[in-house]
């Protein structure tokens, strides 16, 4: 009896120049491995509940293949985790950042090789790996959640910019946060509370977010999340972070404060924000060239929250770890 695989794909993913080509390649590889394949394109209306219905409509499914960027992969993984389905998820990175795929050893950013070949082969030649997920206000995430100007910068690039400029599109928006004052956040985790002024606060499930390793012990299956506070002070700090992210500077020490957590609550502290000297200088420079910019509001009541590159509500937020939440297909040489 043939096995059943569902192929979920985003036709508008960041690198999806010719989706019919790579969809055909995936279907051919699965059919050669004795799978019956059904394909479903994502849409604005498709959420994890819709994917759960798809996976259970015809009885037991054997494989869910998610093709797209981190946002598309997130809703596929959320569906399996929420419903507690014993179905492995195959990941095909066709987005711009592909942070999850990089951390699972599925993606090598090499101009001389097919970026999808390793991931496609892993669907049938790989092994199952049980990974953690995070949960923010009831929504699962695989890569990370964030708040603050630097988190907002990940939401900023338009689709055509991501297609044309790849990770440099994110680098540009990250550097532009130099003109935005930090936000004051009260953080409560495991009985400890403290307030920080930061340009970005991220809670990460992966070991490498693109600008350095969190720690040598960080893993995607360790049952722990990493709380990262980014508070750049000088102009070169913004440039370094932006272009580290664009170049995926894996293996280097991460240039931010990291704390291990299993759960964390964050809320805005509504006090006046102090603009740094470098931010004031940057704003005056832009104004001198005719790009007039109003000073930021001095009071924040709430800010946008982000998970895996997509907007997801506002503060306050509660984040917790969901250990061993879902099985994914990884290369046989992946540790673990």
Fold blueprint:
Blueprint: E1 3-9, H1 19-32, E2 35-41, H2 48-56, E3 63-68, H3 70-83, E4 89-93, H4 99-103, H5 117-125, E5 127-136, E6 139-141, E7 144-147, H6 149-155, H7 159-165, H8 168-176, E8 183-189, E9 192-198, E10 200-204, E11 225-230, H9 235-247, E12 257-261, E13 263-268, H10 277-288, E14 304-307, E15 310-314, E16 317-330
Helix pairs in contact: 1-5, 2-3, 6-8, 8-9
Question: What are the key terms here?
Answer:
six-stranded antiparallel β-sheet, globular, single chain, 2 domains, 30% strand, Rossmann fold, 10 helices, Tumour Suppressor Smad4, 336 residues, alpha+beta
Question: Can you walk me through this structure?
Answer:
This protein has helices at 19-32, 48-56, 70-83, 99-103, 117-125, 149-155, 159-165, 168-176, 235-247, 277-288, and strands spanning 3-9, 35-41, 63-68, 89-93, 127-136, 139-141, 144-147, 183-189, 192-198, 200-204, 225-230, 257-261, 263-268, 304-307, 310-314, 317-330. The radius of gyration is 20 Å and the shape is globular. The chain folds into two domains: 3-125, Probable inorganic polyphosphate/atp-NAD kinase, domain 1 (Rossmann fold); 144-322, Tumour Suppressor Smad4. Strand 1 (3-9), helix 1 and strand 2 form a beta-alpha-beta unit. It has a six-stranded antiparallel β-sheet. A six-stranded antiparallel β-sheet has the order 12-11-10-7-14-15, covered by helices on one side. The chain has a four-stranded parallel β-sheet with strand order 2-1-3-4, sandwiched between helices. By secondary structure, it is of the alpha+beta class.
